[in-house]
Design goal:
By secondary structure, this protein is α/β, with parallel strands linked by helices. Helices cover about 35% and strands about 20% of the residues.
Length: about 220
């Protein structure tokens, strides 16, 4: 069964701790914190202090998805804040392997994300060093966007690459994941689904949002 990872980007920040606790109680597998700097993506969100706050409200693994330029400058801060898994973008640093090594040296799991227009081949020489690969299925920067359906063959290609290289790591998908798209994403090869508005924007609440995703995958 695929893992469900709520993204707090769509949460009510006035009651962030409660919203994180609701997601854990509803059966979420981990929590994602989307970090944006207004340079790599056209939005500014949160930093290590929010990761620290989320960490206090859950025993689940916490992902820090760094959509920022020069992510290697901030790895220690996010590790200290309590992130269990740190995800950086291939497009954001010229020294990707060094950054992955540093994340592992900090005792954390390491992931690399690709934007929709970045080909999977950009990861082929580092796959076996990763704990997670993340394919963006929207252009990063804002929540609530529509799933790019042309991403489905890309998920299939990355899954085939992972198998070809004998890489043991998660294939996570982020962007437009909802009950209507979740089954197709998993069929294409993903085993971790990040969902923001589908969970925190669900009309009947967080638990109903997670249940709807689980039901779509049954």
């Amino acid at each position: 069964m695929a893992l469900i990872v709520p993204s707090i980007l769509s949460a009510d920040f006035a009651r962030l701790g409660q919203q994180v606790e609701e997601a854990q109680a509803a059966g979420a597998d981990r929590i994602q914190v989307d970090v944006m700097d207004g340079r790599f993506v056209p939005n500014i969100t949160v930093g290590p202090l929010i990761v620290e706050a989320v960490r206090r409200h859950t025993s689940l693994p916490v992902e820090a998805h760094l959509m920022i330029v020069e992510p290697e400058r901030y790895l220690e801060e996010f590790a200290r804040a309590g992130a269990d898994l740190i995800i950086i973008h291939q497009e954001a640093t010229p020294h990707l392997h060094r950054a992955i090594q540093r994340i592992h040296a900090l005792g954390k799991r390491a992931g690399v994300a690709l934007n929709p227009a970045t080909p999977c081949v950009m990861l082929q020489d580092i796959l076996t060093a990763l704990d997670l690969t993340l394919l963006m299925t929207v252009n990063p920067g804002f929540g609530g966007q529509s799933f790019i359906r042309e991403s489905l063959p890309k998920i299939e290609r990355l899954r085939a690459m992972l198998q070809q290289h004998g890489a043991i790591c998660d294939l996570e998908v982020d962007g437009g994941v909802a009950p209507e798209t979740a089954r197709d994403v998993v069929r294409a090869g993903a085993n971790v689904l990040v969902a923001g508005s589908a969970v925190y924007g669900a009309p009947s609440g967080v638990a109903a949002g997670i249940s709807a995703l689980r039901a779509a995958l049954a």
